[in-house]
Specification:
Layout (H helix, E strand, L loop, with lengths): L19 E2 L9 E2 L1 H5 L1 H12 L9 E5 L3 H12 L2 E7 L7 E7 L5 E7 L8 E9 L3 H12 L3 E10 L3 H9 L2 E2 L7 H5 L3
Parallel strand pairs: 3-4, 3-7, 7-8, 8-9
Antiparallel strand pairs: 1-2, 4-6, 5-6
């Protein structure tokens, strides 16, 4: 798809065609959504689709997960006129933090952190990331928010795969993603 083309009729998820396939091998994700973020209408429509299920819901803040979740999270926070909280990989914040170990989609053990002064008890937070593959990263973010007394108002990502972790998240939290149901099996199997 031409990077600057906007279809005459824009059905939900049209911008998914902007994503580029992996050309670098097995150490990389199977799709790269960064080209979608370069497309002004694609980014706007993606964020609008992610936020649509939460219209009217009380959301106090949007949190994005390091690093690609920062893009969608900050864009959503701007649309909602809410603050944005960065949930970081450990070692990047120079303030008081709480940490959470997790296993990412590649099976690597990592640690995530969030500043302790940004989440007060009862604060309703919409968690955003680019992709939920195995669910480990998002689950760690959920645990950080809840440990600090925050309430997960919802989870949003371009794709939430039908994995064990993805199902765990969908069963417990209101979720939003951009992949039409007819295409979900292709995304689950990385085709």
């Amino acid at each position: 798809m031409d990077l600057w083309h906007v279809p005459a009729t824009r059905e939900r998820g049209w911008y998914l065609a902007l994503m580029a396939p992996n050309v670098k091998g097995p150490n990389y994700a199977w799709l790269d959504p960064s080209r979608l973020y370069c497309h002004p209408q694609g980014l706007q429509d993606c964020v609008a689709d992610l936020l649509q299920p939460f219209q009217g819901d009380p959301i106090d803040m949007v949190a994005g997960i390091d690093a690609m979740g920062f893009i969608l999270g900050a864009a959503a926070a701007a649309v909602l006129r809410k603050g944005f909280l960065a949930i970081r990989k450990a070692g990047h914040l120079c303030v008081q933090t709480v940490t959470q170990p997790y296993t990412d989609y590649s099976g690597r053990e990592k640690v995530m952190e969030v500043r302790t002064d940004a989440i007060s008890p009862g604060l309703r937070i919409l968690l955003m990331d680019q992709w939920v593959e195995t669910g480990g990263t998002m689950r760690a973010a959920i645990e950080l928010v809840e440990r600090l007394g925050g309430v997960v108002a919802g989870v949003a990502a371009i794709c939430i795969e039908d994995s064990e972790g993805g199902r765990w998240i969908r069963e417990r939290y209101k979720c939003s993603h951009c992949v039409p149901s007819r295409l979900q099996p292709r995304f689950d199997h990385h085709q």
